[in-house]
Amino acid sequence: MTSIAIDGAAIPERPEPQGPVWFTLRRWPVLWLSLRIALLTIVTLGFYRFWGKTRLRQTFWRHVSIAGDPLEYTGRPVELLLGFLAAIVILIPVFAIPSVTGLITADPRIVGAVNVLQFLVIFYLVPVALFRARRYLLTRTLWRGIAFGQDGSAFRYANLVLRWSLLVAVTLGVAYPRMRAARQRYLVEHSWYGGARFAFNIDAGKLTGAWLAALGCIWGAVISIPLGRALIAAFAVAVPLEGKAVLVLVGVAVLVTLGCWAAFWVFYIRYRVREFRLFTTGTSLGAVGFDSALPARPVLLLYMAFFGLLLLTVGIFFAIAVAGSFAMYDGRVLTPGATTLIMAAALLPASWAYFVLNVAWLRVGLLRIACQTLTIHNLAAVEGVIRDSGAQAPRYGEGMADALDVGAF
Amino acid sequence: MRSMSAPSEAGVFRARYNDGQAARTVDVGVRIGPEGVTVTGHDGRLDHWPADTVRLIEKPSATGPLRLGTTERAGARLAIADEAAFGLCSRVLPQLHAAERQDRRVARRVMAWGVAAVAAVALIVTVLIPRLADQVAAMIPEETEQRLGAEVAKQVVWLLAKLEGRPASSMGCSGGEGGIALAQLGRRLSDAADVDRPVAIRLIDADLVNAFAVPGRRIILTRGMVEFAPSPEALAGVLAHEVAHGLHHHPMAMAVRTASTSFLLGLLVGDFLGGGAVVAVGHQMLEAGYNRDAEHEADLTAIELLRRAGIDPGPTGDLFDAFAARAGEMEGGALDRYFASHPPSAARAALFRDAATAGTPALPPRLWDALRRACD
């Protein structure tokens, strides 16, 4: 091991690059940070959210290290604000036209048509927003001083999503994994690190099994309502039933539907975990390969704990709100003022709780487990990557995604 | 006398270096001094950052070392673990915190604009839109209002039918003698209002005690209200109130206001963290306040219409007293005042009673009976 001296201090030999990805963020600091951010956002009527998002991302990025070097987030809050303002300009007509139409014409067919049109426009704009938000995020992420990038066109991406969504609808949902693969392919194959492009290579057929399990649950849930109703009606005709028996049957039908939905969530999470593993393995950067061993059960438990915590917090707030209005109104709970206050007092903390728990519990947990189970092959090959001086980086971003409230993190 | 120059501070530290060109991290030695940062590696001097180009990327903390960057080369980074380095940098590198300072300046400017924007929006929503809504409502052409009113009337009847659990088509009872009674009342009030097209009153077989003014000078009256009214004069008072709403274009104005206010607030707030709830509550309070003013205006105009039609407003006061008694259990505490869409019934009763004068019966007894039986 050779070392050279500089003004008396010795520099050690460079260690070999390692593969593991570390995530060193703990939950408690994030909890306090997100609570502060939520408070400031409320107090500033939402203006602070751009600063809050930036702080959060800086914190998260800083705690992800690959081969000893952390990620760095170089986004500025002002860029997010400008993006938001730009998006509003585009969205004003999208939201204003149906409202105005409702006023000038009373014909329900025209009003209906305009509303459908508005829905389609927003449906189309969502992938546009997601694409642009991802591009902003990538170009503001540095590793070892080199920035990521994304080329391609948001509108081509949205067209792709539209085509595939139609296919999914036509196949009653069976084509869903292939759609996800097609979307991911477009995104990954247009992603860059410095001057090197990512590649994507998978066999979407491997996801069919996991997806069909989840899809079956959706079909079950959807069919169970009309089927249950028809069965009960037929039963009631064949066997004269008294009120209680009908109630029991209805209860059973409702339980079956709820059970189907609960099963769907479980199977869907399992599907997404498998999809993540497959997509990660299929992604490569030159000679650098990735592999994920993300296990399904911890992820499932994470989500269940998240929902449990959410219900608990919202339940507590709701109880406090009802108790408070009881006290204020001497037991008369149903006056308009009381009801509005209860709803506001319960809803507001509910959305704060959702935000805080989502960030501090769910995101930290997911990211940690994803990083722990990620392996990178041939990382040494990345050292040949050189900065792309001609890269396109948007000057401001994410406005559409913020205004349409998609891809919040 | 010899001048003493302050000894220039400098320090040497180990660091990890990225040159911003290649995705490689190298272990280096750095010398930090007033001349800048000099980076030396195995093969000699790698880089030099002039003092005023050095920027702080990240403060040293429990979770990470000091990180420095430079404005000369994007992506060039130094990570220094030694704790003494940060103090030294702060002392000898003048522009170290320039990026932070710039961000804070921008943030302050944004806050200022933000406050101005919020104030502007508040002004628009509380003052401008209501005023404009009244103007806009008055300007909407007659036939548009008629067509809109027809649709709204259909919706109201449909809703009432849902409440009663009956098909909408079975709800109307405007035929026969009862219909004649309504037409007579309607014409009398329209003449008093001096409008060319008479108001159209529709009687709906619903238990609900209410009357609705709908755009296009239509009124929907419920059987419940007819039964609740102690006398035809009291009923005439209720109808006059609704006609007054129509004359002032209140229903239309409310539609315009609701559409523009909720649209504006919703767009601006962008549904942050329960912003929707804030908007909803604020909106309710605004609307309620505005409705209370509209209701009061309609009361005053109704009294005027009754007088011109030769009907005594006094019995309508009795009707509001009956309302007040009924609603006694419903009205909550002080906060309800801000959410109530009507002024307190007791006050309205007093208003009508004070205007009591002599008058002719609103309907002959025969037609009044027919009206009360119209939905049987």
**Could you spell the SSE succession of chain A in H and E letters?**
EEEHHEEHHEEHHEEHHEEHHEH
Uncertain residue segments of chain B: 329-335
Mean pLDDT of chain A: 84
- Major sheet details of chain B: 7 strands, antiparallel
Note the gap between the termini of chain B.
119 Å
Q: What is the structural class of chain B?
A: alpha+beta
Question: What kind of oligomer do you see?
Answer: heterodimer
Strand percentage of chain B, roughly?
Answer: 15-25%
What's the structural blueprint in terms of helices and strands?
The complex is a heterodimer of chains A (409) and B (376).
Chain A: E1 4-6, E2 9-11, E3 21-23, H1 27-43, H2 49-62, E4 64-66, E5 69-73, H3 77-104, H4 108-139, E6 141-143, E7 146-150, H5 154-170, H6 176-189, E8 191-193, E9 196-200, H7 208-238, H8 243-282, E10 283-285, E11 288-292, H9 296-329, H10 336-372, E12 374-377, H11 399-404
Antiparallel strand pairs in A: 1-2, 3-4, 4-5, 5-6, 6-7, 7-8, 8-9, 9-10, 10-11, 11-12
Helix pairs in contact in A: 1-2, 1-10, 2-3, 3-4, 4-5, 5-6, 7-8, 8-9, 9-10
Chain B: E1 11-18, E2 26-33, E3 36-41, E4 44-50, E5 54-58, E6 66-70, E7 77-80, H1 84-92, H2 98-139, H3 142-164, H4 176-193, E8 200-204, E9 211-214, E10 218-222, H5 223-228, H6 232-247, H7 250-269, H8 275-309, H9 314-327, H10 336-339, H11 345-354, H12 365-372
Parallel strand pairs in B: 8-10
Antiparallel strand pairs in B: 1-2, 1-7, 2-3, 3-4, 5-6, 6-7, 9-10
Helix pairs in contact in B: 2-7, 4-6, 4-8, 4-12, 6-8, 6-9, 7-8, 9-11
